[in-house]
Amino acid sequence: GSAGLGHTRLAIIDPEAAQPLENESGHMHLVVNGEFYGFDEIRDELSRRGHRLSTRSDSEIALHLYEDLGTACLDRLRGQFAFALWDGLARTLVVVRDRVGVKPLYYATLADGALLFASEPKALLQCPEVDRGLDLTSLDAYLEGVERELHRLRHAQGGSSGPTAAQRLAEVLLDMGDRCGEPDGRRIELS
Prior knowledge:
It contains five helices and six strands, in the order ββααββββααα. The chain has helices at 39-48, 60-69, 121-124, 136-156, 165-180; strands spanning 21-22, 28-36, 79-87, 92-97, 106-109, 115-118. The strands form two sheets. It has a four-stranded antiparallel sheet with strand order 1-2-3-4, with helices on one face. Helix 1 (39-48) crosses helix 2 and helix 4 packs antiparallel against helix 5. It is globular. The relative contact order is 0.10.
């Protein structure tokens, strides 16, 4: 397959650094939302190793670290960021979000297998093929994870009785579904 990367952003460190960024040979391309901490030290290291950095942007360090380390570059990156890197030689797309998830990363897969991603849902919704329906299976999995974590916290604090926050939220969503209609009949099941 092929890849297309687009980007709109507020540039703080280097307003002239247009994205997508590309490596020296032009086979890797990168788009970034966010910032990398301690990037000056990594920039200096990359320069000493022979990389030609074409901008003053902190974003460019991810591109060159990936060239040297592959996905192990993630061990070196600190900050709040989401990025996508296309490696044209390997025909590989790497899409990453910071460990804490400060910078959001939304994605959608289309019927033809295409992957779309963005830092805001409204960008994905510009594509008419993106399903706008509520994915109850994913919501159920998310609520189960919330439920497990709340149960763990309650148990650690000596326990609590009554419905959990996840159960209350599920009831609200089910009530909304009842009022709005559920054409496919799927329901959230909680134990």
